[in-house]
């Protein structure tokens, strides 16, 4: 049968890109999807050789099916185990990687196999350097490479009967105010991000007014929520919280650290405003303004008010 790669999909993301990366290293690409029928359809369009769908329905948390997904993968020991970079995929990936006694290499954008040695390439040092990791074990990685276009082929969807979770795991609440806020941020076409460089909490009213003129949601960097407590953590933009893909992202006083920028990698246009000309944001944005956010806000408000 040749080399096998199992892919784990628990949310929408760079599905086609992950399939494309797996095809470079494996002869057979299989996929397990944990989630809705809509997610399964999107994953099938990525073109894996086979797709197995665990339908969570409305009552079962996706994380509760991690054991069943891992057992499915364990039926044939693969050479590679990849997942998308989202919380649900990571939970299932960790369960399967442990069961396979795999070498977990973390995030990677490319995989290969040379003479029985599995390889993964990872970006480090804010994307300035590439590290090659090699192992003779099963290689388990979290795919953070670029997406690709679907090639037109779609896999048949094999629906798997879901086992009733043995663990006492259930949804405590649905449709809470917090979840509505988070979905608003993730679905927004425009987002204004708040960082340390905004200066003081007093400036937030102007930021919200500015966002209002743009029809934008307001998000923030992790330190602003965790250390300054200006926002709840459901407003954090970054790889560990909200990964967003707006048409426009305006970063106010955000330095541009990898944790944050990974959360906006799919934004169409990124504008960075920071008073530090050496800030990392200026190496990653489409448009940059060097200046003090507090002093620039009145001018931004005036212009936005005329839109």
From TrEMBL:
Residues 18-130 form the Electron transfer flavoprotein alpha/beta-subunit N-terminal domain. SUPFAM superfamilies: Adenine nucleotide alpha hydrolases-like, DHS-like NAD/FAD-binding domain. It comes from the Bacteria. Residues 185-265 form the Electron transfer flavoprotein alpha subunit C-terminal domain. It comes from Enterocloster lavalensis. GO terms for biological process: fatty acid beta-oxidation using acyl-CoA dehydrogenase. Belongs to the ETF alpha-subunit/FixB family. This is Electron transfer flavoprotein alpha subunit apoprotein. PANTHER family: ELECTRON TRANSFER FLAVOPROTEIN ALPHA, ELECTRON TRANSFER FLAVOPROTEIN, SUBUNIT ALPHA (ETFA). Pfam families: ETF, ETF_alpha. One of its GO terms (molecular function) is electron transfer activity.
